[in-house]
Each structure stands twice: as structure tokens, then as C-alpha cells.
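subagent[fold] <- orchestrator: predict structure for attached chain, return C-alpha cells only, no commentary.
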Amino acid sequence: MNRPPRKATWAGGNLTPS
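subagent[fold] -> orchestrator:
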């Protein structure tokens, strides 16, 4: 799992709005 910096993006296959 990847954690995108302050953006919701499918990086690694997970959508994380951080």
C-alpha cells in the first residue's frame, strides 16, 4: 500500500484521500 501526500490517488491499488 502506498500513501499519497495529501491527494486521493490510486497508488498501489488503494484510494486514500490524505
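orchestrator: received. Logging for downstream: The chain has a mean pLDDT of 60. DSSP finds no helices and no strands in the chain.
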